[in-house]
Specification:
The protein contains 16 helices and 13 strands. The chain is of the alpha/beta class and 424 residues long. Helix 2 (82-92) runs antiparallel to helix 3 (98-111) and helix 9 packs across helix 14. The longest helix has 19 residues, at 395-413. The two termini are 33 Å apart. The mean pLDDT is 94.
Length: 424
């Protein structure tokens, strides 16, 4: 191992269970620590759960989107300065402020501590505050899991009504900032070759300047079931971080309705259906209330249990920059049915899952039925998935490659202004 590095790891929100940001921050910080590096996490709400030995610096926001009162009205005493006013005003005008306002708050905190860190690693806020840190002499890099402009384009394609489309464009206005910032940082990493090409297309950063560092899992936690665990022969699981068109959940529900005409089958959704959202409307339209269970966010041990007891895991997404849920299922030896969207073919390979065209409900239903009907295929896919994860997708390997990337960035930026030499 090379020299020990001092890393500030930034995440504008780090939900511990559900979604990928909190999982990424916890796992990467832990593994970097175990490799001998000093990592401090800076996060806005919701705050992450971190392992012992990884300090957390809280970067509090107005927390305007917290459950159970999203889009809330803060009390006057909650406003602490101009950034809070900016956050509130942006939300009131249908924008999404968190990437920008988090980066400004983090820059203010880190600007007082430039001598404490060798590198700042941002987890996809890509806010203007990161450029302030570069001006202070702090090498600043970022992970882009995938360009958020892809989410925007898919939601716009699914939206109906001029007002809804205008509101969505305003909500996603921060993506223009992210493109400007990404092109000026000291380095970018992403999680797949597919995402690297998308970053060039949507953010204007040449693919050759983006390092691919896949994310992973802990194979001792996500593992095949023991002999005492029995898989549910009619059980399908899907993990979705948000009830949005990108995740293809409505297509899966429509495929489930087709299967239900011929067999008993049950779907567990690790996630939440938004009231009045696409999934909730589809459930009512398809009459699937008794066949689908939404768990909400679950702790890791419960997620592992769900994956171990399912017969098949579905990933029906219209796009994935990587798909950690696919890797988690593979690690548990659970067969996959996935679409061919984004990085899924790259991540899953040709032996761990059955692949169907994205958005094709009929093919999705056929693939699920194929796996449900053939125990020998289930065993074959499960073994291949576990082997693929052990060879390529562990958090330790992610941390090793991230540390190598940091060292390369520091070598390239050597000779630039040193931290603390410029006013912050």
């Amino acid at each position: 191992m090379g020299r020990s590095l001092r890393v500030a790891l930034l995440s504008y929100r780090s939900k511990p269970h559900g979604g990928g940001q909190g999982v990424y921050v916890r796992a990467l910080s832990r593994e970097l620590r175990d490799l001998g590096h000093r990592v401090e996490v800076f996060s806005g709400q919701p705050y992450p759960e971190l392992d012992d030995g990884v300090p957390l610096t809280r970067v509090p926001s107005l927390d305007l989107y917290r459950e159970p009162d999203p889009f809330r009205t803060p009390r006057p005493g909650e406003f602490r300065g101009p950034v809070d006013v900016l956050e509130w005003a942006t939300m009131c005008t249908a924008g999404f402020p968190e990437p920008l306002t988090f980066s400004l708050r983090a820059a203010r905190l880190l600007g007082r501590r430039t001598a404490d860190f060798d590198v700042v690693h941002d987890n996809q806020s890509l806010g203007y505050g990161l450029l302030q840190l570069r001006r202070c002499g702090l090498p600043t890099v970022a992970t882009v899991h995938h360009p958020i402009a892809i989410d925007r384009d898919l939601e716009l394609a699914a939206a109906t009504g001029l007002r809804r489309r205008l509101t969505l464009r305003r909500w996603y206005a921060f993506t223009a900032m992210q493109g400007r910032v990404a092109r000026r940082l000291d380095g970018l990493t992403t999680v797949s070759e597919s995402s690297r090409q998308d970053i060039e297309r949507h953010l204007g950063v040449p693919a050759g300047g983006v390092q691919v560092v896949p994310v992973g899992i802990d194979p001792d936690v996500f593992r095949p079931p023991g002999a005492d665990v029995v898989r549910d022969p009619a059980g399908i699981v899907v993990t979705t971080s948000a009830d949005v068109p990108l995740k293809g959940l409505v297509h899966l529900l429509e495929a489930l309705a087709k299967l239900r005409t011929e067999r008993d089958v049950r779907l567990t959704v690790v996630g939440t259906a938004r009231p009045g959202g696409p999934a909730a409307l589809a459930l009512d339209r398809l009459g699937l209330g008794d066949a689908v269970r939404f768990t909400g966010p679950v702790p890791t041990d419960e997620l592992v249990r769900l994956l171990q007891t399912a017969t098949v895991v579905a990933v029906p997404s219209l796009y994935e920059g990587f798909s950690l849920p696919a890797v988690e299922a593979m690690a548990c030896g659970t067969p996959l049915v996935t679409t061919d969207a984004g990085a899924l073919p790259e991540v899953v390979g040709s032996h761990a899952g059955v692949q169907v065209p994205a958005g094709d409900v009929g093919r999705l239903a056929e693939a699920l039925q194929l796996v449900l009907d053939h125990p020998s295929l289930q065993e074959q896919l499960g073994r291949a998935g576990r082997a693929r994860v052990l060879g390529a997708y562990t958090w330790r390997r992610t941390a090793e490659r991230s540390a190598e990337w940091y060292a390369d960035v520091l070598d390239r930026t050597r000779g630039r202004a040193t931290p603390g030499s410029a006013p912050c």
